[in-house]
Amino acid sequence: MTRAPTPTRQGKESATPRIKDDSLNGAPLEAAAILKGLPDAVVAAAADGRIVFVNVRAEELFGYPCAELVGRPVETLWPERVRERYTRNMRLYFAEERPLRFTTDAWGLRRDGSEFVGEMAWGVVSTTAGRLLLAIGRDISERRTEEARLRAVAAIGERALAGDDSVSLAREAVELLPGRLPVLGAEVRQADGSPLASIGIAAAVKLRLPLGGGHELLVMPERELTEQELNLVRAVANTLGTALMHQRDEERIRHEAVHDPLTGLPNRTLLWDRLDRALARSLRDGGATGVLFVDLDNFKDVNDAHGHAAGDAVLVELGRRLQSAIRPTDTVARIGGDEFVVVCEQVDESSALALGRRLEHAIEQPLLLGELEHQLSASIGISIGRSDRDALVRRADAALYGAKARGSGSIEVGG
Q1: Half-sphere exposure of 207 toward its Cβ, with a 13 Å CA cutoff?
Q2: Which of residues 213, 232, 257 is at a domain's end?
């Protein structure tokens, strides 16, 4: 590379100096010896951009022996993508009359072509050998990498607090690990063994970290991880596990707010919401919505004869039977005691009656709990309509009373 001459104040080209042991700032001590002993890398360059001094740590950092670096252009130590900018800045530093002292991050280029980022203290200093650009610093690439890893883990926690769904959080976690660590694949596996999110995972899983609730984080490293790398995996697992637990708690709270605690069926709140939605679709798409009130005829006898625990067990089993008797698009809810309500869409009187008979048949089947067999029946009131939820419910309730008046196991359609 042809170097442009750097004019001095007298307009003459300056020769490339070399630092002597007592040259810096005219110090009586052996200045070069002090710089050689610093725990950080030291590089000094003259105004023409040639390196005049490196210490042992600089040799180790850049991968060159001292004899090979001294006399070379300092831009040898800079990646090509930043070389022009750094060279321009160096000229500006030397052009300043006042002393310069500052600290910044800078990119370096090793002999093997690899790059690193360094935290560098820069300064143009006056010495008996002339003005020199002195750079003292250390490789902070690993620190930067670790900080980026921690920020990525923290981002998962922030997204969890913001309400991101569990699939998105799990996907982000399994993408983070291969991107930040020597890891071939990772997977978040659910309690039932199915993957919630997976990337590059194979049979040879070496790390399994529990996430709570039966979930696991599976990791397949390409080599044995260092303790620092393992700490990152643990941090991901802890953050993800906490996030998933928080979401499970929220889902449980939401579920409990709209479901019957005994049978797990929708409660009155969710039932009315489903009915409102069904009626809205009836108005928009046509067809009618049916409401069936189901009231057990002789349930009080179970409680009186066998106690409330037996009564609860009967209600749980009846809830399962009613659920199996309806279509997937229908809703069966328990609204209190021994009362159930079914909402069904796209029905007429005939199909609503057929559903009522299926419910009645499911209830009438002998129910064996422990050594006790229970025989139950129910009265069912039906109403059909396309709008006015309250009116539809009142008609179904009135039909139920009519059915009960006719005797056990009766079904009646309201007008």
Answers
A1: 25
A2: 257
The residue whose two tokens read 């749980």 is 316
Residue-wise pLDDT for 234-286, tens only, equals 888 888 888 888 888 888 899 999 999 999 999 999 999 999 999 999 999 88
- CA dist list (Å): 380 to 31, 82, 409: 101, 82, 8
Backbone angles phi, psi at 80, to 5 degrees: -60, -35
Expressed as residue numbers, the domain containing 311 is 268-413
Q: What would the pLDDT profile of 200-244 be if each residue is shown by its tens digit? A: 875 567 789 999 889 999 998 888 888 888 888 888 888 888 888
How far apart are alpha carbons 162 and 250 in whole angstroms? 13
C-alpha distances out from residue 10 to 6, 125, 326, Å: 11, 19, 100
Q: Give the three-state DSSP class for 317.
A: helix
80 and 131 both lie in a single domain: yes
Spatial separation of the C-alpha atoms in residues 321 and 45, rounded to whole Å: 87
What pTM did the predictor assign? 0.57
Q: In whole angstroms, what is the distance from residue 268 CA to residue 253 CA? A: 16
Alpha-carbon radius of gyration of the chain: 39
Q: Is residue 263 part of a domain?
A: no
CATH code of the domain in which 135 resides: 3.30.450.20
CA distance 198 to 287: 44
> Which CATH number does the domain housing residue 173 bear?
3.30.450.40
Which residues, including other chains, have CB under 8 Å from residue 88's CB and lie 6 or more apart? Answer: none
Asked if residues 153 and 236 have their Cβ atoms less than 8 Å apart, the reply is yes
Task: Tell the burial category of 411 from Cβ atoms under 10 Å away from its Cβ (0-12, 13-18, 19+).
Answer: buried
